[in-house]
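pinging the channel bc i need a second pair of eyes. not urgent but kinda urgent?? the chain im working w is below, pasted from the shared doc
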Amino acid sequence: MPLIKHLSSIISISKELEQELNKLTIKKTFAKGEVIINCNERCDRIFFIDKGLVRGYYYDDGKEITHWFAQEQEFATSFYAFITSKPALEHVQALEETEVIEIPYSVLQHLYKTFPETERLGRIITENYYIKLEERFLSLQFKTAKERYQKLLNSKPSLIQRVSLGQIASYLGITQETLSRIRAEL
């Protein structure tokens, strides 16, 4: 299972934990364009993306603002809602046909109680997520639009082929026209 392989790249996974994950997780497929999590709804599951691409977005003055992308071998959910049990602040949408492994919140809590190594896994994954969030924040605050686009090209080059230019521009905090000028310069 791809989830087991990914988790095993972080720490050693016991056979018992592997069996429990195989038993308690759910494989799902979402169609291209399908909204997986709706804004203002409770979110009680996290997804490991086996194949495909999703984005988190919200509306501001009627415009879609893309907040994040997640692709193969990454986790996706409305993290705020998942952790706090409050309504989601964003929509989560499949941008391609997407195959995921779903882990309900209750299952994750069960794994934390039953298998101590899952708490370590959770901490490491959360730390990595926080680092990405901090890097994104600093990039938006201190980097030029061209520098942000260049970083995206270097860190996730496949996104450029898989995501609309409007969504990329929104993610970078710029207009499509500015993105077009930057692309022409490069």
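so The first strand starts at residue 26 and ends at 30. and The beta strands are 26-30, 35-37, 45-51, 53-60, 63-71, 75-76, 91-94, 98-104. — does that match what u expected or am i reading it wrong
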